[in-house]
Structures are given as structure tokens and as C-alpha cells.
Amino acid sequence: MSGLNQSFSRQTPEEDDQQRLVCNHCGFVNYENPKIVVGSVATWEDQILLCKRAIEPRIGYWTLPAGYLEQHESPQCGARREAWEEARAQLEIDQLLATYAITRISQVQLIYRARLQTPEVSAGPESQEVGLFKWEEIPWDKLAFPSVLWSLKHFRETKDQPVFAPRQQSDAD
Amino acid sequence: MSGLNQSFSRQTPEEDDQQRLVCNHCGFVNYENPKIVVGSVATWEDQILLCKRAIEPRIGYWTLPAGYLEQHESPQCGARREAWEEARAQLEIDQLLATYAITRISQVQLIYRARLQTPEVSAGPESQEVGLFKWEEIPWDKLAFPSVLWSLKHFRETKDQPVFAPRQQSDAD
Lengths: 173, 173
Known about the structure:
Two copies of one chain form a homodimer.
Chain A: E1 8-11, E2 20-23, E3 29-30, E4 35-44, E5 47-53, E6 62-63, E7 66-68, H1 75-87, E8 91-102, E9 107-116, E10 127-133, H2 146-158, E11 167-170
Parallel strand pairs in A: 4-9, 8-11
Antiparallel strand pairs in A: 1-2, 2-3, 4-5, 4-7, 5-6, 5-10, 8-9
């Protein structure tokens, strides 16, 4: 995608009340919207699935299977797809564990509690390795993002509750 | 925004695995992502806040206060903002009532249970009128969208429960 003739400026389109990025060449209005990340805390017995990132950001650090929701996909389907892509894991979604708002980067995360249907997992193209960890085996000092820590903490709080209200956290909290 | 020179075609950018809309003039890649709608079932005593739409689609039909989450906004803040914009209502958010996936139009809705801080409400610019309705007074045959009906039904199911798992529904269900 080299040799582009891109030039956007901030303008307020007609019938809008906010500035948007508008292409100076073609007039295309790039409406920016928050993005949805879907993921899971997925368990086999008392072990939690984690993936060591093979891509930036935070390459080499451990994360939960999670990624951007695609067009025309439900959040539960997206969480299952990400677990398959990153860890070749097959999930059964239980319930919504938490919603996290990373307002700095306009991201809303929907993290589900899930069960692995089998303990067979292996690294997909975005993972260096994947593993099933007991609580005390989790590499706490090598977690990729604050929301991974939040998810694990909220999973621990609610793991014996069949029904609970999803936890909420924001980077502004 | 007349006189545009817009022309997009579906191409697969380098290092991508899906076709995207790419501007033929400037090479801009329009990554399309699902959009987040935030809203609420907001009550004052045994009455529910509804808004009669002053804009398309479904002008003249009744809806819950809801709309697109803005950049750098948490879902709870967005739900409060929409209630203010559409009904001049001040809310206290209780908990997440439901998540709805409208996969046909790539929309994820996060609907909260909320309490009005005062019963004073009035129509904002996107509403013809607003009102507080007891259950039996709800204009069931004049609701704007299926998700409004889902929200009311799920509110009714959970209204006496201090803790519950958010309901989930999809247009594919």
C-alpha cells in the first residue's frame, strides 16, 4: 500500500455536530467509532488458557484469546473464533464475565467465561505458544495488558457463581 | 457534501486476509467494524421512559433512549448521554441488562438497567415526545425496533432480581 495519495483533514460534515476526518481528494468521510474486542477466560478443569503473543504490541507476553469482532458476527461467535485462531481451542461460551472500556483508544471489550470442550490446544499464527495454567502457575509478571489482569481477577471472583452481574472496569476508573 | 469524487472497490490489502473497501483515488482503506449502540431501560417508580422518534428510521415510533457510542466514551457514559440528548433525562446506571447482536447490520447493543434521578423528562431534538409508561400503557404496536421489545421483555424478567446474568439475543436466533 505504498505510493498513496492520502490527505485527510478534520472538517464538520453537513448535518453533523462533530469534526470528522474527511479526504481532501475524494470527500470520503471517515466516521471513527469505538471498536469491539471479544475474548474469553476459558478453562479446562482448574486450568486457564493463555496465549503468548507472536505479534506486536506486547510480543512475547501472555494474553487471553481475544481480538476484534468482525462484521456480521455476534460477540459470542467472535470469542469462539478468536480462541480457535490463536489457540486452536474449541469453546463453549458460558456467560459474559465483564465489559471493559479502554477509552484512551476507544475500545470496548466483551470478555466471556467459557469452557474448553477438549484440553487439546496449540499455537495459531498469532501465538508463540499456548498453555493451560493453574492459578498459581499464571505468569503474572508477563501479562500483556491490564485488561488481562482484570479478566483473571474477575474470573476468580465469580468462578463459583452460576449467576452474577458482569464486572465493569474502565481505564478511567 | 455534494460533488464528491468517491469511488471505492473491494480489494485485499497487503498483510490482510479479507477484502476491504479501498478508495480508487487515494488508496484509503476503509476498515469496517461493528458499531456499538448503548441504551437503557430507565425507570421512575413503576414507569419506563420511552421516546417517540423524530428522525428516520421509524419516525413516529417509540424507542428506548439509545444511540451510537462515541469515541473515547465508556458504554455507561454513552447510555447516560443518549438519555440526556433524547429525553433530557438524568440516569443512574444500575447494571447491564442485555447484549444484542444485530448481525445483519453489524451492530452490537449494550442495554443497561437504569433509574431516573428525577421524573422530569422532555423531548430532545431527536424526539417528537417522551413519556413515562406503566407496563400496561406501553404502546406495544408502535415500538420502533425488535430490540426495543426484547429489552422490555428482558427488563420485565429481571426487574425484581438484584443480580442476574445479562440476557443475550441475536437477529440470527
